[in-house]
Amino acid sequence: MTDADFADLIIGSDGLARPAWAATTDLLRDYYDTEWGMPVRTEQGLFERLCLESFQAGLSWELVLRKREGFRRAFAGFDPEKVAEFDEGDVEKLMANPEIIRNQRKIRAVLNNARATLTLRGRGGLSELIWSHQPAENLYPRTSAEVPSQSPESLALSKALKEAGFTFVGPTMIFALMEAVGMVDTHLLESHRRGSSGVWA
User: Fold this and answer.
1) Domain of residue 67, residue span
2) Residue 14 lies in a domain
3) CA 99, CA 97: separation in Å to the nearest integer?
4) CA angle, corner 14, sides to 11 and 16, nearest 5?
């Protein structure tokens, strides 16, 4: 391999290699170092990530992270049972809440997906549905150009979620979710976080 193979990695002041996107701000670096790509298997944890990924669509992930605590306050800690009870009055309050990203389609998707999450409990639950689409083989990217934006598994999971009543769950967003919760390890090969999830040998 040549230096060009690892051109997307940046060596931080701590001597650790990270992809460029994770080396731009303290917030992104801390998220990358402690959370991104680590396994999430609880219903509430996956519901939160699904919601945050939908809010990120068309925007920067850093913006979502900056507003994450506001999102948690606004959406009852992403407890699907509580969010499923939100009504039109709550939608109006959310649209007036400066702590979150005020996009009505995305807000309504969260409420809809909370109800779909509860319905799924009778069929194994959200975690079982999502993790049943874990690919059989991992990815081994050297550069960001080798990381796909979607996969056969994200296409299949997107379809399964839509069939279960979820909205705002396109295959590209779902692939980002799969990366974030450790279903695939797209840490670049020379990143200090490669293999940290424990999901892949």
Assistant:
1) 40-180
2) no
3) 5
4) 45
* 133 is an annotated ligand-binding site residue: no
Instruction: Report DSSP letters for 12-80, one per residue.
Output: -TTS-EEEGGGSSSHHHHHHHHHTTTS---SHHHHHHHHHHHHHHTTS-HHHHHHTHHHHHHHTGGG-H
Average pLDDT, integer, range 38-65: 96
Q: Give the pLDDT confidence of 67-107 residue by residue, as tens digits.
A: 999 999 999 999 999 999 999 999 999 999 999 999 999 99
Tell whether the model's pLDDT for residue 135 goes beyond 50: yes
Q: Record the tokens describing residue 170, joined without a space.
A: 């396109």
In a domain, 6, yes or no: no
CATH number at residue 173: 1.10.340.30
In a domain, 110, yes or no: yes
What total number of domains does the chain contain? 1
Greatest alpha-carbon pair distance for the chain in Å reads 58
Please provide residue 17's backbone torsions phi and psi, each rounded to the nearest 5 degrees. -90, 130
pLDDT tens digits, one per residue of 137-171:
999 999 999 999 999 999 999 999 999 999 999 99
pLDDT band for 7, please (50, 70, 90 cuts): low
- Residues catalogued as catalytic: 31, 53, 61
